[in-house]
Specification:
about 130 residues, mainly beta, Jelly Rolls, five-stranded antiparallel sheet, 10 strands, about 0% helix, globular
């Protein structure tokens, strides 16, 4: 079994529906306990009318209390995408670097575009996790 693995998050399009970092565009369940090491994001298209193009990855612990939203960001700062098809990396927040099997990672965005217009097309994020 490899000591590291990658989780991928993807959405065909994302807009600013609901406000910054509110909508979850994709999610993946963490299969084994470990430490988050790196996070990258890229988009095949970024809307030309945006000045803010940020991607966040949130961690939702397994089995939260009913109705609670205890998700928190895993990044020190959001990943900023400034060019189409260019990959950008984020720095993992030390306080949220540990994940356990069953935790959920969520892809969220913030764009300065009109809420009804897509800001990202083919948005992808990859998170590398080192197993315990």
């Amino acid at each position: 079994m490899p000591d590291r693995y990658a989780l991928s998050l993807h959405t065909s399009l994302a807009s600013n529906t609901g406000g910054p970092f509110i909508s979850t565009w994709d999610r993946a369940v963490v299969p084994s306990t470990g430490t988050l090491r790196t996070a990258y994001a890229t988009a095949s298209t970024i809307a030309s009318n945006t000045t803010v193009n940020r991607v966040e990855i949130y961690r939702q612990p397994d089995a939260p209390a009913g109705g609670s939203n205890t998700a928190t960001t895993i990044l020190v700062d959001p990943i900023t995408l400034s060019n189409t098809n260019a990959s950008s990396s984020g720095t993992i927040r030390a306080a949220n670097a540990r994940v356990t099997a069953g935790d959920q990672l969520q892809l969220r965005t913030d764009m300065s575009n009109v809420a009804s217009q897509p800001g990202f097309l083919d948005l992808r994020a990859t998170i590398e996790i080192e197993r315990d």
